[in-house]
Amino acid sequence: MPQKKNKKTVKNSYAMITALMTPQDQNFLGYVFGGAILKLMDQIAYVSAARHSGKYCVTASFDRVDFKEHVHVGELLTLKSCVNFVGKTSMEVGVRIEAEDPKTGKVRHTASGYVTMVAIDKNGKPTTVPQIIPETEDEKRRYREGQIRYKMRKEIR
Ligand SMILES: CC(C)(COP(=O)(O)OP(=O)(O)OC[C@H]1O[C@@H](n2cnc3c(N)ncnc32)[C@H](O)[C@@H]1OP(=O)(O)O)[C@@H](O)C(=O)NCCC(=O)NCCS
């Protein structure tokens, strides 16, 4: 069994990024590129995973990401993340993305997704990470659901 000192709370892994969507992020139709949003997802997932593991991490995979609505240039994109579930060396990071029109203050949920990050040692090999302690009801639900997805990903591979 892992020792208490080898466990960390979900709260410790919370991260938030707010970015202004600029003309250089836009596609030919004037909306923000999905790739620009995926890059921010990858970055914030790294922040949560690095906070949890205290180690360098690599992106192992993205689960399906559904873009529910367009994001417009001039909107503020806020990404929130935390570690949902931890295996031995991998961490499932959940990311929620919201777009805000700064003129009206209206906030829209535009996308969500899961990123699996793996902690690596100095030789680039997977290395163990602390176990996670879900505290709130939401964190406990995300942990249970994350565990199911972790097993499904292994089966699919
Ligand atoms: C991700 C990577 C470290 C896995 O290495 P590996 O030698 O295949 O390691 P293992 O099979 O022992 O798996 C290690 C962990 O990764 C998880 N994993 C491996 N491939 C995965 C995938 N495609 N999706 C989700 N998790 C994955 C395993 O479930 C395991 O988790 P666990 O220890 O919590 O049970 C390796 O494939 C790699 O370095 N890939 C390139 C990463 C990269 O360049 N990313 C983009 C830039 S950062």
Brief sketch in words of this structure:
About 25% of the residues lie in helices and about 35% in strands. It contains two helices and eight strands. The protein is globular and about 45 Å long.
How far the N terminus sits from the C terminus, by CA atoms, comes to 27 Å
Averaged pLDDT, please? 95
Name the helicity range.
25-40%
What CATH calls the topology is Thiol Ester Dehydrase, Chain A
Regions with little confidence, pLDDT below 50 for 5+ residues: none
Summed up, the helix count is: 2
Residues in β-strands, percent: 35-45%
The distinct bound ligands, ions and cofactors come out as: coenzyme A
So what's the CATH class? Answer: Alpha Beta
How many separate domains make up the residues? Answer: 1
CATH architecture descriptor text: Roll
Q: Give the full name of the CATH homologous superfamily.
A: Hotdog Thioesterase
Order of helices and strands: EEHEEEEEEH
Q: How many strands in all? A: 8
Description:
With 157 residues, the chain is α+β, with helices and mostly antiparallel strands. It has one domain: Thiol Ester Dehydrase, Chain A (Roll). It is built from 2 helices and 8 strands. The protein has helices at residues 34-53, 137-156; strands at 7-9, 15-20, 56-62, 66-67, 76-86, 90-100, 107-120, 131-133. The strands form 2 sheets. Strands 2, 3, 4, 5, 6 and 7 form a 6-stranded antiparallel beta sheet that branches. Strands 1-8 form a two-stranded parallel sheet. The longest helix is centred in the N-terminal third of the chain and has 20 residues, at 34-53. The two termini are 27 Å apart. The structure holds coenzyme A.
